[in-house]
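Subject: Mechanosensitive ion channel protein MscS

B.,
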Amino acid sequence: MKKIIFLFLFSTQFFVAQEKVNVDLSNPNATIYTHLYFLQEETFQPIKASKTFFGLKQKDAIDKAIKLKKILDGKGLFIDFNKIPNDPNYNDTIGYRRVYKYVIFPLRMPQISVEKINGSWYYSEETVAQIDTLYNQVFPWYVHKLQEMIPVSGYKKVFGIELWQFVGILLLLAFTVLMVIIIKKISFWILQALQEKITHKDSNSEAKLILKKLAHPISLVVGIKIIDAVFPSLQFSLDVNAWVFMTLNIAETIFWIYVFLKLVKVVMKLYEDFTSKTESKLDDQLVPILRNFLTVVVVVIGSFRMLHILGVDTTTLLAGATIGGLAFALASQDTVKNLIGTIMIFIDKPFHIGDWIVTSELEGTVEQVGFRSTRVRAADTSIFQIPNSKLSEIVINNRGMLLFRRHRTELGLRYDTPPELIDAFVKGVRELIMVHPDSRKDAFNAEFIGFGDSALLILVNVYFRSLDWNLEQSSKHKLHIAIVKLAKELGVEFAFPSTTVTIENFPEKKGINPRYDTDKERIEIAISSVVSNFEEENPTEKNEI
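Prediction pasted inline below.
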């Protein structure tokens, strides 16, 4: 009787246990759980685990199921079932075509996924096709050969680790260090060759130092990749592999951030050398702005990658950041407008650093273009800070982009100047303009244009090549001094506002009117002398405009 009762109780417990471990393929979570649950040591039933593969023979399905479990364990891919959807109709698409598919590790191993087939969830066809390839990558052929060579004593455990695993770790670290040293030298040589090819000059000490700093993290990344590829062959437990590979991923992300930060520095250094050779100074101002922008981009992307490794749902975080960013942008429209204005200034280039600009409200020299505003220094050395949004909309007269600087003035001769001397004076002024080293030779005027209140008016209209304000004043000075010397040599006097009273009843009184010498030969000699002296004092450059 006791035996019958015991048999009854045992049979009841057996059937209850069987109900608890039934195969469930109703949703992504159930399918993945079924696969892994029936391959654990205490619940090892590979036939049930193979049910998660559709359309395969039982033997092949069992082989695929076991290999996939080893791949996940070898790469330390710990599955958090709380994050796997339980929806039988889960799909990750938005378009008109619904795709019932779930990728378990979209970043670390996107080849593994489950999909809905005939109302149930199975591992996808892509996964089935990739399992053998992934398995050979995680456990290369030499692993099995080496395991056959390990003696029985090599499987003894010390602190829970087998002796052959200790030896494997030491050999892996030694090989990795050796490869890091070699890769560092090769990376530096390649980077130096690229830098010299791009810049067409040998690397200086500063450039070599930057390239060495860039080559070092590159070699470390390669070292991490070696450990990442070989470590699964040591066949540690899933917990150990999970911690090791998380550490490797964090280290790799930090190194990549460092690599790209150094790369930004190298690229900006090359761009800075390029902009220093251009005439425009606005692109020089773009260098620090671009450097800061690219640095922020690298740090933000690296931070998102780090958060994803630590298990943070970056999709939700990104969505929240986007909404928050939109709200922030709406709350700070002026800042956004100024940023857009800055972009427009760098695209359109209405002026360059150092240009003299004139607007309806101010005029001065452009000193700096920032993210938000532009700094302009007025003639009295005061500073104007103009929002870039406003500066990109107003009318700007860029005096710095003049091809020539125009100088117009009127000279007044006395009314009693003889016509011969007026012609001689005008002729002399023309010749002085022609030999002036800074003047434009094909466009100028020197003409007797009319009669003023107190003087005969001589128009002088000349264009100077120098665009610098100080050099323009120096060019004016040279021309004005030469004209004064010409007038002195010709005996021509400049008029000034005056009133002349004529007294005819005092013959003993002499008039104040000057005596003009209109001898043609003397006039020609005077003009030739003044022009020759001016030309000797101010030699004209060969490349005249």
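The radius of gyration is 44 Å.

T.
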